[in-house]
Amino acid sequence: MILISEDVWGAPLQKLEGSFHILRDDDLWSHPEELKAALADVSALVVRNRTKVTADLIAAAPKLKIIARAGVGLDNIDIKAADTAGVVVVAGLGANAVSVGELTLGLALNLLRNIAGHNIATHDGGWVRTPGQELSGLTWGLLGCGATGLATAKLLTGFDCSVLGYDPYAKNLSGIELTTFEDVLGRSDVLSIHMPSTPDTNGCINTTTIALMKPAAIIINVGRGEVINEPDLIAALKSQKIAGAALDVRVQEPPIKGEMEIIPNLILTPHVAGITTASQQRINQILAANIELVLNSKPATHAVGALKESSN
Fold first, then answer.
1. Any catalytic annotation for residue 302?
2. Is residue 108 located within the same domain as residue 232?
3. Confidence tier at 138 by pLDDT (50, 70, 90)
4. Is 253 a catalytic residue?
5. Contact predicate 1/65, CB 8 Å
6. What is the pLDDT of residues 259-272, one digit of tens each?
7. pLDDT at 73
8. Which residue is catalytic, options 271, 282, 292, 302?
9. What is the pairing mode between strands 88-91 and 303-304?
10. Active-site entry in 17, 134, 182, 253
11. Exactly one of 69, 224, 250, 282 is catalytic; which is it?
C-alpha cells in the first residue's frame, strides 16, 4: 500500500492506482498516532514537509520500502533511521529550482519597487508615485549555491548584477564570485538565503551578522526559517538597519500571527517558492517513477542518504 499523508497528488501518482492501493489523507500528518497506526501495512510513504518522519515512525512501518519527499528539503525525515531500516528515501532534488529562483527575484523586485505597498494604497484610492530602486547593476549575494541558488543566479544574468556566493561545498561556479560569509553580507544589496536548517546554519542571520550589511540592503529567505533569528530581524527592520525583507519560510509553519505581520517593509508568503504547476508535475513524475521502481525491487534514480549509491 502507498500512503500519502499530505496534499501531494497529480496525474503521475494517480497512474499508480492501476498497480497499487493508495490511501490519501491530506491532514494525516497532523495526527501522529493515527499516522503511526496507518503505517503497519504501508510499503511507500509520500510526504511533503509537514510529516515528521521520525525513527519511531519508521519503526512502526515494518513493510516500508520507500519514503518519497515531494520537495527538496529533508530536515523532516530521519535519514539515518531510514538508512538503518533499509528504507530508500527519494526526493525531487532540483525539480523546483526554477520555481524557487523566479519567486526569489519576484520578492526582490517587489521590495525594491514597493509593489505590494503601492497595490494596497492604490486599492484604497491613493495615487502616491514614490520612486523605487532598480535591480539592474546591484550586487546580489547568495547564501547557499545549490540548485535553487544556481537557478537564481542564472535568472539574474538579464539584470546585469554582480553575483556573490557563499557555500562551503561549492567550487568554481560560472558567473558567481565565491567568497566568505561575511564578505557576501557586507557587499550585497540583495541577499537571498538558500540554505537548509542545520546546527551550523540555524540563527546565522542575527543582530551581529545583520550589522555587517548595508542599511539599504534587503534579505530574501527561501531556504529555511530557522536560518534567521526572527526577533533580531524584526528589530533590524524596525530600526532600519536594513531596508526590507521577504520571508517565504518561517521558524514555525504555519506561524502564529504576531509582530512580523504588521511590519510594512516585510513581505510574507506561505512557503510557496517551490510550488508551481510545472514544478509539482516534475516532482510527482520523479516520485511516482521511483515508487514504482522500488516497489518492483528495482533501484531508485533519485535516492538520497546512505542508500544512494546502492540505488543508482
1. no
2. yes
3. very high
4. yes
5. no
6. 999 999 999 999 99
7. 78
8. 271
9. antiparallel
10. 253
11. 224
